[in-house]
Design brief:
Keywords: Coiled coil. It is built from three helices and no strands. The protein is mostly helical and about 110 residues long. The longest helix has about 45 residues.
């Protein structure tokens, strides 16, 4: 029914807003992760074990595990997932808006005939 479609659109719009807020928080809390990863690689090539880390100040014990690339990759995947969910919601909303438009046209045709 038209009311169900409108309710569904309202729910999807609310979900979309929440996803966009979540994505915005990620955007604000990160440098571009790809840039960060290349920046880290540059730093790693410029330092050696025993040097002081230019980021945290600790003595570098191991170049391989000093930076957590897994957490960077995890955040990249979370961002991609949120972006995919946003696109799905936008698509669903567009479909339901089209359905409502169709229902409204039917209603308007019925009103014209009566």
């Amino acid at each position: 029914s038209k009311q169900e479609l409108e309710n569904q659109i309202n729910e999807e719009t609310s979900t979309l807003k929440n996803l966009e807020i979540k994505l915005d928080r990620y955007d604000k809390s990160k440098l571009d992760l790809n840039d960060k990863e290349s920046f880290i690689s540059e730093i790693k090539s410029a330092v050696k074990i025993g040097d002081q880390c230019p980021i945290c100040g600790n003595e570098i014990q191991d170049l391989g595990h000093h930076i957590d690339f897994d957490s960077i990759a995890k955040r990249q995947n979370e961002i991609k997932e949120i972006e995919a969910n946003i696109n799905t919601m936008k698509s669903n909303i567009a479909v339901h808006n089209s359905e409502i438009k169709f229902v409204n046209e039917k209603i308007s045709n019925i009103n014209i005939k009566t």
